[in-house]
Design brief:
Number of domains: 2
Shape: globular
Number of helices: 13
Strand content: 5-15%
Bound molecules: tryptophanyl-5'AMP
CATH class of the largest domain: Alpha Beta
Low-confidence stretches: none
Radius of gyration: 21 Å
CATH topology of the largest domain: Rossmann fold
Length: 329
């Protein structure tokens, strides 16, 4: 029996090359080796205010991005998180096991609530990792392929799974996070000390998967660089290191090959080359994306949710029984 992987992306804001290189790309590579389930995490998206119509559109768009990135619905299960009610049900139960101090330690919560003011942010932002734990544990997930920023949430998922198992008997598989190599964190183009982020204040922070060629060139031109002018891959040059990472991940060249190509040349030439690499990747990607109709993706999601519901409902029957809830019939 193949082991199961589960992962998801929130349909909030524009997906960027960090989401692709840190997470989605490796999903495509893992789908043959594992039994794969991928979800569009719309329940997570509403932890920040969303316009309802935009949320619907983004939910479909994310599913299309999965397909354009090579995720094969014949091999994997794709579904929308809110279509399976067991996610919120299990999140409630796990929410009674998690400790306040554990949630207070989550760096994503600290970052996000700091931006908006902790006392003003919704409680959903605080309990968000519990919902993520429910997503993962419902499906007996062994491996969770994500970017580095999500690893802390996976650690908490492991803690909650063990706590539940200790208290109520073996119920959940203890999952492991899986990082892609260099893509584990793509940094912001305007600030290489912070990760590239959908919710960044400036659009010059990220390259969206739907940016056109002119926008991509403009953003790369404006990307911050380090002092000095040579193209070298080094920890002392975090901005350039990040750009070279993007170059290597999208071109298949090694960092050393990139250094050699740009020996004696400056940032201008390098940035032009990088723009061509990014445009060369995104143009065919966007053509694929444009070729996927709403109807086609809705049909795939309908099929996917049936499979997801069957698994989730069987697991919840077991969980309810373990916890001591009286059966309804
Ligand atoms: P989200 O939507 O913020 O990000 C989706 C995926 O992209 C990765 N990522 C990055 N990787 C590299 N560099 C970056 N700058 C970068 N920014 C984001 C994230 O690590 C993630 O893998 N809570 C999750 C969604 C989720 C989920 C789950 C994931 C909901 N339920 C269950 C795994 C399992 C989130 O908000 O990801």
């Amino acid at each position: 029996m193949k082991q199961r992987i589960f992962s998801g992306v929130q349909p909030s804001g524009n997906l960027h090359i960090g989401n692709y290189l840190g997470a989605i790309r490796q999903w495509g590579e893992l789908q043959d080796q594992y039994e794969a389930i991928f979800s569009v995490a719309d329940l997570h998206a509403i932890t920040a205010p969303q316009d309802p119509e935009t949320l619907r559109q983004k939910t479909l768009e994310i599913a299309k991005i999965y397909l354009a990135a090579g995720i094969d619905p014949e091999k994997c299960t794709l579904f929308v998180q809110s279509h399976v009610k067991e996610h919120t049900e299990l999140a409630w139960i796990l929410g009674t096991l998690v400790r306040m101090a554990e949630l207070e330690r989550m760096t994503q919560y600290k970052d996000k609530s700091q931006k908006g003011g902790a006392s003003e942010s919704g409680a959903g932002l605080f309990t968000y990792p519990v919902l993520m734990a429910a997503d993962i544990l419902l499906y007996d997930t062994a491996v969770v392929p994500v970017g580095k920023d999500q690893m802390q949430h996976i650690e908490l998922t492991r803690t909650l799974a063990k706590r539940f198992n200790d208290r109520f008997g073996e119920t959940f598989v203890i999952p492991e996070g899986k990082l892609s190599k260099e893509g584990q964190v793509i940094m912001g183009l305007d600030d290489p000390s912070k990760k590239m982020s959908k919710s960044a204040a400036s659009e010059y922070n990220y390259i969206s998967l739907t940016d056109d060629a002119d926008t991509i060139r403009k953003k790369i031109k404006k990307a911050v660089t380090d002092s000095g002018s040579e193209i070298v891959y080094s920890d002392d040059k975090p901005a350039l290191k990040n750009l070279i990472n993007i170059y290597t991940l999208l071109s298949g060249k090694t960092a050393q090959e990139v250094e050699e190509m740009y020996q004696g040349k400056g940032y201008g030439d390098f940035k032009e080359g990088l723009s061509e690499v990014v445009v060369g990747f995104l143009t065919p990607f966007q053509e694929k994306l444009a070729g996927i109709s709403d109807e086609a993706v809705e049909e795939i999601l309908r099929k996917g949710v049936e499979k997801a519901r069957a698994l989730a409902s069987a697991k919840m029957t077991q969980v309810r029984e373990r916890v001591g809830f009286l059966p309804a019939e």
